[in-house]
Amino acid sequence: xxxxxxxxxxxxxxxxxxxxxxxxxxxxxxxxxxxxxxxxxxxxxxxxxxxxxxxxxxxxxxxxxxxxxxxxxxxxxxxxxxxxxxxxxxxxxxxxxxxxxxxxxxxxxxxxxxxxxxxxxxxxxxxxxxxxxxxxxxxxxxxxxxxxxxxxxxxxxxxxxxxxxxxxxxxxxxxxxxxxxxxxxxxxxxxxxxxxxxxxxxxxxxxxxxxxxxxxxxxxxxxxxxxxxxxxxxxxxxxxxxxxxxxxxxxxxxxxxxxxxx
Amino acid sequence: xxxxxxxxxxxxxxxxxxxxxxxxxxxxxxxxxxxxxxxxxxxxxxxxxxxxxxxxxxxxxxxxxxxxxxxxxxxxxxxxxxxxxxxxxxxxxxxxxxxxxxxxxxxxxxxxxxxxxxxxxxxxxxxxxxxxxxxxxxxxxxxxxxxxxxxxxxxxxxxxxxxxxxxxxxxxxxxxxxxxxxxxxxxxxxxxxxxxxxxxxxxxxxxxxxxxxxxxxxxxxxxxxxxxxxxxxxxxxxxxxxxxxxxxxxxxxxxxxxxxxxxxxxxxxxxxxxxxxxxxxxxxxxxxx
Lengths: 262, 289
Description:
With 262 residues, chain A is mostly helical. Chain A has a single domain (50-255), classed as MetI-like fold, CATH 1.10.3720. Chain A is 77% helix and 0% strand. Chain A starts with a helix and ends in a 7-residue tail after the last helix. Chain B has 289 residues and is an all-alpha fold. Chain B has one domain (71-288): MetI-like fold (Orthogonal Bundle), CATH 1.10.3720. Helices cover 74% and strands 0% of the residues of chain B. In chain B, helix 2 crosses helix 12, helix 7 (160-184) packs across helix 9 (201-229) and helix 11 (246-255) crosses helix 12 (260-288). The longest helix of chain B has 34 residues, at 68-101. Chain A: InterPro entries: Bact_Polyamine_Transport, MetI-like, MetI-like_sf.
């Protein structure tokens, strides 16, 4: 039918418009980081001086290292603890299990503004204070529910008979877990780890409330710089961040299909 | 759900505990105890730090209810949440439909990924990128003046529309995601059957497609509305002076005014509002998950 054709054509066009809406600002921001004019003036003249000047900005570099370190440690801790918890939730039946699973929801659903300010108050009250350690505590807690949800989704595709078979062949609990279960859920564990890295590396709100002038992460540093005024240097560092986090998500998508299908 | 396996002696909470405890202990220390502490502090006159005297009080809540300012700002934030959610429905739902029903195979997968990819990238940077587009002498201004025969000044930066645009840009992938998941599950033969029985496209949309995809719409709406009501960074960067909302006032209590007890009370009131909204949406949210 002709109308169907036209409607489908409009639909396709619409999707491309949506993609333009989603990507154009990011592309423009990236382009401006290569533009000579410090006031973002056109015509466009190519330069990499803003990237070069990033190297001289010690504050930014130290914040970048903090971000990377915290993201890596967060990934390791939350992947290990989260996978363990997923296994326990998968293998065992007990009263209150539903409640424990429901408890994973608030950290994801409650606005970070509330979680972040609550952490600030509590950490201050118990003497942990602010700083990188507090930020790490917070990031792991934010990443854990994502890891557990993703690994649990993968575990749903696992046949428990495999564990039974290994056990009846004489494997002990550790062997069953490390040789049978873990290899099977590995794609889920990797995806969970990548999610955890992304949650930590892109996290702004919680880090913002928990950071101190010397101990900050990259997004917090960028926010401070934005509020002082826009400079092409911010564009440059922002471009790096967005490229890194998008590359990470592409990796995640490769190891874990969204929607849970295999 | 997973875990219908009960293998005799290996079941039960006791054997699950060693694997469960570390994760839940961490969540308790970093999420659940802080949220409880926030409620506690919101009833205090001072933070019990550095030996200052403190006592219990209802003043912080009295401040919220007696000063029109906080009410007004909470309402402004709720309205912002509503407007952003509506725009996300209007923009995201048709996109989800086209994605689920028009595109096929690999191209669908690729475009789906392209739509949700920005969502998982840095939110702060994406908000900042709009400053490049919206400010006077920015790309929108330059592009429109290059095309139009007359001179116009586009300076949307630091305005309410700028905040809306930035937030919609941030959250519309959520709506596409949740609606796509429910729309995809609708059997094509159902639509064909309805059409062959003489239903018009509009009737099909109203009577079949929208009702069947309602869970996705509600889930998307809840997942967008809640964080937008609590947003502060987006209005700060794109709203400038006009960007004062409930979230920015909470931020101020903690980083500028240092009235933490009042900040805790304001945060808790927001939490209560959020929990009510999530509770209302939770039957539907469960069905989607």
